[in-house]
Amino acid sequence: xxxxxxxxxxxxxxxxxxxxxxxxxxxxxxxxxxxxxxxxxxxxxxxxxxxxxxxxxxxxxxxxxxxxxxxxxxxxxxxxxxxxxxxxxxxxxxxxxxxxxxxxxxxxxxxxxxxxxxxxxxxxxxxxxxxxxxxxxxxxxxxxxxxxxxxxxxxxxxxxxxxxxxxxxxxxxxxxxxxxxxxxxxxxxxxxxxxxxxxxxxxxxxxxxxxxxxxxxxxxxxxxxxxxxxxxxxxxxxxxxxxxxxxxxxxxxxxxxxxxxxxxxxxxxxxxx
Length: 273
Ligand code: PXL
Fold this sequence. Notes:
alpha/beta; about 270 residues; 9-stranded mixed beta sheet; binds 3-hydroxy-5-(hydroxymethyl)-2-methylisonicotinaldehyde; single chain; two-stranded antiparallel sheet
């Protein structure tokens, strides 16, 4: 069985970061080891959330694992809290990276052209450094534009996306997967670039006009879980895009109209079939 380490916060209520990564990657058949970077009462789109930073726990926890001889087939990082925490995560990569460890970085920090409340340009720069250490990165268009210094655009063509991917590629990771890429009216999806082959890969499906929190985490967690099942990055990206779109559609049909997260619990049985 593959073993994945995922490093991100626990938002106790909110369906994002670890509360998505743990169930999804486990359901896809990999042992999922978690390293919580902070405990929040909810994700940061709620008002008045509490937050306990766990930076001082990262070193003792990982030192214990090291002394136990633990190894990982993948390390997947998502939302992190601070610039110093990203430096700690870089150390963790150095400690546990082997020839067969896939490092997947989702530089969670922004969406819809804006940084999330806790972040600034120093954080953007640090996240770009973290991306340089990854095998695969999965930013959305906003995060990519911040990290590459390109203008964020709501409307664009494929040349804009190719340029973003080339600049992401220059950051250092071997595969760059951009999420939230809409190349035709009524469609949205993903587009990736692989340095070794020089190939682009586009996958588009229907666009659903709804924005939920945690959908980026759902995409990335599914992507990681599918890669660990042995799929190549293109197939993993396609399945993760379909699954995320389907889950948004199912959530929209929920008469209770959830606002803070998607109903992935309802769709997970279909994913693992
Ligand atoms: O889904 C990304 C995410 C993860 N964790 C926390 C967040 C967010 C997005 O805002 O606030 C705490």
